[in-house]
Design a protein that fits this description.
Layout: H1 7-27, E1 46-49, E2 52-55, H2 62-70, E3 74-75, E4 86-87, H3 90-98, H4 104-113, E5 116-117
């Protein structure tokens, strides 16, 4: 059951949003330090580097993971992660996994060019029924 959107609640949400936006403008984005080096993540885990994100697929070797960590890739270690990322298409992750070590840098650069920013879902709750508003 959702709370009714009273006028007081709307004003409260508006001021909260404005306060967060002003705070982020004043302080600017904060760069997080690189996390510690870890063992190769399991299949399906999201790994990130700056504003890029990919999902670990089957076949990623320990050698490839070590190479990616040298480039700054780390497993997401902070939750909830509200940052916006550009996601690598799964086909490019597969190409990176299958690439020989000499071609990895070129494949990673091409994958970066093909990374797509996914829209954030503000309200992930789906209304009852078929999901359409009437």
């Amino acid at each position: 059951m959702t709370r009714a959107a009273t006028p007081q609640r709307k004003v409260s949400l508006l001021f909260g949003t404005l306060r967060r936006q002003i705070r982020s403008l004043i302080s600017g984005p904060k760069d997080r330090s690189l996390g510690r080096r870890t063992a190769r993540p399991s299949i399906g885990t999201q790994i990130v580097c700056k504003d890029l994100r990919m999902v670990v697929q089957a076949g990623m070797s320990d050698e490839l993971w070590a190479w990616l960590m040298e480039k700054g890739w780390r497993e997401v270690a902070y939750f909830p992660d509200r940052r916006q990322y550009r996601d690598f298409p799964p086909s490019w992750v597969t190409r990176l996994v299958d690439a020989i070590p000499e071609e990895r840098a070129a494949v990673l650069a091409a994958a970066t060019e093909n990374a797509v920013r996914r829209p954030r879902l503000r309200n992930a709750a789906v209304p009852a029924g078929n999901g359409r508003r009437r």
